[in-house]
Amino acid sequence: MTASSTIESDYTNIPPRRIDRFATSTRTSGNVQTTTETPNPAGETENSFVPTFNGDNDDRSETMNELTEAIERPADVATFEHRVLEYFSGRLESIDGNTAIVSLRSVSGEIFEGEYPVSRLLELGIQDGDPFDCETVETPNGVEVRISPRRRLPLTVEMLSRMSAELDESLSGLEQAFGQAR
Amino acid sequence: MHVFGGPRDGEGIVLRFPDGSFAVIDSCVSKDSNGDTEYPILRFLNDRNVKKLRFVCLTHPHADHYRGLVKILRSLEVQEFWQSQALTFSQLKSIINLRRQRDLEFGDYPKGDDNDELHLLYELLKEKLEAANRQRRKNGFQFQLIGINRLLSIHSSVDVVALAPHGNEVMNLEYQLGSAFDEDGRIKSKFDQNINSISCAFLIRLPAFNVMLGGDVESRSWKLIVPAIDPAYAGRLQSSLFKVCHHGSDGAYCKELEDTFVLPDRRTDFVVTGYYPSKLPRPEMIDCLKAAAKSVSLTHRSHIRLESDLRPLNSSREALAREFGIAIPVQQSASREAISETFQVRRPAVANFGRCSFHFDGKGNLVSHDVSDPAMLV
User: Fold this and answer.
1) Residue A162's closest chain B neighbor by CA?
2) pTM for the full model?
3) Distance CA B365, CA B211 (A)
4) What ipTM was assigned to the predicted interfaces of this complex?
């Protein structure tokens, strides 16, 4: 991300999400399992691997070794076939005691509303009003519902300034109208 | 008065005054089964060949109250736009900024979302004001800022007394928004000001009766407002019809409201617009209202599940329904599904919306009270 990048390119460059992430908990309901993923402090799931190259040869060598190791390591959840059936864009709409009211928007735009334990969403770092990702995944054990927090993008000073300037420009002149109405 | 509401799509009110003029307070939209946006209020007005509105009011900047206002303002001639006096230019910008930062953090910007509609609304208002200033016409488009005790005359026999927002709530919002950002313009802490506290609320006074529109003002604010109402209006506050505040939440009703605005001997009709994402109205609140009311109307069934359609019911949808407690509709037969797919069968438009209509005669008698499905009397 560069200082001159636009707001649009800042978010459209998000790399696609991996679905074979490490599962930290599984909830079974009938033949339905729910898998939730807890992000580590860097916001990545535990087996997400983000190589960083800073020009230092030692670091690069170490990084390559880690990368090789990660590729060769048997994946925790890759031992069975699974298939994403559907993706939903979720949002924690409100909290009613211990119950979270959530909305789920399918790719085709249908909206479903339901309930979920608040504590499980909070454990994932999903707070009131936050969006989250939700997938139904077919596994040999049945269909799993996977919930994961959506990664937050860091907002740069340039992005904030640009946003503010856009608002000023689009609404300029309205301030005077507000003043006249008083 | 016609009150519209859907389970998650907010509320809007259409007023028809004795001189035949119309006004709209807040708006709401819905999506049909094909994902097309429906505008129930605009459709209602178009069906009655209404071309002009005396005023359009946005009580407060929550999406369940402003969605669809842009379409109304573009489609009809509007004389005045009313809004809360707490929403100054600076506060408006801060509110849009707060929401946009959150959207941007999650990569949702810009997508024509709810926040974008608030921005579009004020861009449109700016255009209208600029045009009015250029034309300098008498009775051109005007902007009205609403605060407690402001009196607005509709015509010789109808006036509107603004009951909210209270000045303290206006200042609270100003203070909180003023300290919500760091020097770079980044949100520095969770913003927890209750926007409902700066909602407008109105008492419409006609010669023989009053109508109380509570907006989304909650009981904490009413405890400030009631003692601060101008004594000049005292004695003429009790109302024949009461649009219950804030979708019938826990704070929707209180003793101060009942003592001040409700007629004794259960002579007031109540109407409630629900809001499913917050599980409103509360059943306890409905019971409380029933104890004081002549009737209680709901714009839709409480906690109604959207019917949209876990159809066809495959293993993915079944998993989703179980996990989140979503009601699974009766599975359609293969035959019905084939018919539906072949003929692109659509559900009736705005099926999720209910409308409660109240018609009064000149003496203040309720001459008709209609509730259209899925609205209901409780």
Assistant:
1) B185
2) 0.77
3) 12
4) 0.71
